[in-house]
């Protein structure tokens, strides 16, 4: 679609980032409560921060080592994550807590 879709993409990308920020802050509060909220949030976010920091290096290594295979691995991981989230959605709607 090119340049005409840039505004729509920018809006949707910003909207998604905003929702993600709100969810990261409010979901642990709703699940675990306010007691030790900062500590709990830090413990939950630490692995994600390390993964975010190491992922460019790991992907560069994969590109250097496997070339186009890195793209297929990336697609496979995305599809696996989608499948796991779909399974989680299916399990939670079938057996509500």
Helices, strands, pairings?
Layout (H helix, E strand, L loop, with lengths): L5 H27 L4 H30 L1 H27 L3
Kindly describe this structure.
- The protein is mainly alpha-helical and 97 residues long.
- 87% of the residues lie in helices and 0% in strands.
- It contains three helices and no strands.
- The chain has helices at 6-32, 37-66, 68-94.
- The mean pLDDT is 87.
Mean model confidence by pLDDT: 87
- The portion of residues forming beta strands comes to under 5%
> Which class do the helix and strand fractions yield?
mainly alpha
Low-confidence stretches: none
**Total count of helical runs of at least 4 residues:** 3
Q: What Rg do the Cα atoms give?
A: 18 Å
| Number of DSSP-assigned strands | 0
- N-to-C terminal Cα separation, in Å? 43 Å
Shape category = extended
Percent helix:
over 70%
| Succession of helices and strands | HHH
The major pleated sheet works out as: none
Spell out the key features of this protein.
mainly alpha; 3 helices; 0% strand
In short:
By secondary structure, the protein is mostly helical. The chain contains 3 helices and no strands.
């Amino acid at each position: 679609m090119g340049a005409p879709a840039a505004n729509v993409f920018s809006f949707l990308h910003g909207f998604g980032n905003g929702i993600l920020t709100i969810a990261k802050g409010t979901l642990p509060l709703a699940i675990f409560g306010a007691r030790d909220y900062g500590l709990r949030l830090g413990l939950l976010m630490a692995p994600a921060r390390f993964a975010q920091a190491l992922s460019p290096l790991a992907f560069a290594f994969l590109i250097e080592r496997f070339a186009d295979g890195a793209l297929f691995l990336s697609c496979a991981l995305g599809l696996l994550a989608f499948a796991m989230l779909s399974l989680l959605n299916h399990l939670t709607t079938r057996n509500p807590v």
